Amino acid sequence: MNGRIMTFLALGIALLLIGLALSRPYWRLLRKRVLNQSSEVAIHQGNCTYSSPGVALPNYFQLVGIDVSHHQGLIDWKKVKSAYVKSKPLSFVFVRATYGRWKNDKYFTYNWKATAQVGLLRGAYHYYLPTQSAVAQAEKFLSRVCGPDGKYQGDLPPVLDVEDPPKGISRDEFHREIQQWLELVEHRTGHRPILYSGATFYRVNLYPAFKSYPLWVAHYQNNQPSIPHTQSWDVWQFTDKARINGICVPVDLNVCPHIPSFFPQHALRTLHGS
């Protein structure tokens, strides 16, 4: 009797596993359809509203913006667009497109379309891995952020996010590879890329090799970015714990003390509502 029960139980488990395996393509297709919808911006998971950003803000800034990746989940960009930080609207957003030479950010397509729909100024960024070919990483990034005509689709320049230390290669080789990415992307998009890094990492691993590139620097719990006094910066990521309407997890918040030179004229007109 026990043997028969065990047989039926095993058969039931096997049928359940088969059913789950067969249903996976359906759920993948459903998820893909949700993320690729061009008309639907608001997503249930982004149904969050806050009374304040929940973080101390710098005393002075001209522009404020956020950057996002799949870590923020599905975002309600209509709510984000209507959010204010210290009486200022969000002026820009940077969206992660790719990671290394193979990986796409799984929410990039949705975020890229939705930010355009609501009228947020947007730029795309790539997370750089020094253990992989810089050229292959640049090609991967360009394949995601350029349209069928080969043109970059962002309002703001592409960004190279460099945070991982070089392993098994010299500092000079590390710099040469980064330079390859920057030059290839600039040549193909017509935009001089922005370099993003943490303040300490930048000082130790990158300065002064890339002084001519716009700098977006991350430095938390400080009054201002701690970088060499001979290096200027355009964007400061001062926290990763902000609360913004439409995003149900903490998000990076960035400020600009002035309007950066890389803001194109059409973006400035959009920014000022003219």
SSE blueprint:
Blueprint: H1 2-36, E1 63-68, H2 77-81, E2 84-85, E3 88-89, E4 92-99, E5 103-104, H3 108-118, E6 121-127, H4 134-145, E7 159-161, H5 171-189, E8 194-198, H6 199-206, E9 215-218, E10 235-242, E11 251-256, H7 265-271
Parallel strand pairs: 1-4, 4-6, 6-7, 7-8, 8-9, 9-10
Antiparallel strand pairs: 1-11, 2-3, 4-5, 10-11
The tally of helices reads 7
Helix-strand sequence: HEHEEEEHEHEHEHEEEH
**Shape annotation:** globular
Gap between N and C termini: 81 Å
Q: Which value, in Å, is the CA radius of gyration?
A: 22 Å
CATH superfamily of the largest domain: Glycosidases
Helix content: 25-40%
Q: State the low-pLDDT regions, or none.
A: 25-43
Largest sheet geometry: 8 strands, mixed, barrel
What is the annotated CATH architecture of the largest domain? Alpha-Beta Barrel
pLDDT averaged over residues? 87
CATH fold type of the largest domain: TIM Barrel
Q: What's the count of strands?
A: 11
* Strand order across the largest sheet: 1-4-6-7-8-9-10-11
Instruction: Output the structural class.
Output: alpha/beta
Task: Supply the number of structural domains.
Answer: 2
